[in-house]
Specification:
Order of helices and strands: EHEHEHEHHEEEHHHEEEHEEEEEE
Distance between the termini: 33 Å
Strand content: 25-35%
Shape: elongated
Number of strands: 16
CATH class of the largest domain: Mainly Beta
Radius of gyration: 21 Å
Number of helices: 9
Helix content: 25-40%
Amino acid sequence: MMTTKPAIIKPRKKILLFYNPYAGNGLFKNNLDLIIDRLQAKKYQVVPVRAAKGKTIDLAFSEMKPEEYSRIIIAGGDGTINICVNSMIEHNIDLPIGILPVGTANDFAYYFALPTEVNAALDLALGRHFTYADVGVCNGKHFINVTALGNVVDVSQKTDPNLKNALGIFSYYLMSVSQMVNLRPLPVKLITPDETYEEEMFFMVVMNGKSAGGLKTLSPDSEINDGKMDVILFRETPIMNVLPLIIEFAQGKHLLNKHVLSFQTSSLRIESPVEISTDVDGEKGVALPLEFGILHKRLRIISADTGIGEIK
């Protein structure tokens, strides 16, 4: 009688490190050798991939044997994570993701309360526990945190890049305040499976996470793995009501204001007869109309939460 030997399962000892060398105003490069040294000390084989508009990560994933990898570690902000996630989905890669939040505004990492100090973030990224995250879809492209539309987006895209690098997210606030007198309402139609809204708006967001641009109170009720997007639209507001709305916003109470429309949906279409600036995870987006959907629990994010799942 022939007997078969049990299969030997080799430990996954490779880690793909996808990093943005310009993250944190270029300071991340000072920590790159430290990170690689720590990973190698744990007996991992490090495969570093430098962020370059998605081309290098596409090549890496097209040639990858996922069964040899323990996880992917992404070092950068929301834009860097967005590039990596879009490529992962394109190439059908499903590996746990550890995040080193070293960008200017790390809103996706903020949702998971990830530490910003490099050693502490790396300790967590090498952990065994993960939680699930949804991924938003906008016109066939994927977003992890937010798609934004309207006047504030237009202002941020016109901000001098040197000012952005020097002041970070504070530069957006400065420019937005300086341009408030020039804001004009924009007509939009929002179509969901349950209802259609026709609004005049200054600004709106379709959220997967809770914060955007460092504004931590933007979408206080969002859950990143509930299979829903949170839509928040700021209607045309009389100047006398702007200050009270800002105060409510700072307190996370703006969703109750009559000048704010908010709802949840799993699909959405946005139309407008005028041109409206859009932004996807901090990068310039596409023109309207926009079609939104959601990929429920598509990602596994390594986190301190021990109640969801464990990496084998």
